[in-house]
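Page 47, continued from p. 46.
Same chain as before, 188 aa.
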Amino acid sequence: MGRTHVVKLTGNTDFPTPTPKLSDITDACDALDAAGNAYDFNRGKLEKEARDVSFEVLKSLIRELGGYVQANCKGQRELILSTGFDVRKPNEPVGQLPAAQNVRALVQPYPGRLEVRWDGVRGRSMYQLWITDGDPNDASGWKLLLQSTKNRHVVDELTSNTVYTFRVVVLGTAGASPVSDIAAAKAA
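Result:
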């Protein structure tokens, strides 16, 4: 990658004075190649450390070069690409989030404890976990158990031999998702 930047910036009139110098990046690339070859040949601790240090030096120089390119690109995508760097995809709103999938209530070996898990949802801000120990079709029986950024929760202090039902609502910038399917389990 470092050598690509050197080739693309050599003689590039839009970036006349790269910082750091292209010769410093070439030297760091050569040092990393040598350290990598030494490690491939010997596989010793010292060779591995030398390779890792050389990699970090080159990475730091490329990061500094990226800052130089960003400061001098005038916001033009083509100029950035002409240096061998990539451009980030622009942020786009996620929109309405889907319901959480694969909600599971798992019996635990401890009395009065269940674990609830569900698949993560990209773009979510938070999850709401709802619980009922009554009829899941009775809307008035559902109680908000917690709001969390995690997609699992261990529920303690439940009544043994009681069936508990759970559902999840995903919260995002566009509002709440539809309610997930339910999962039920009997507390040990």
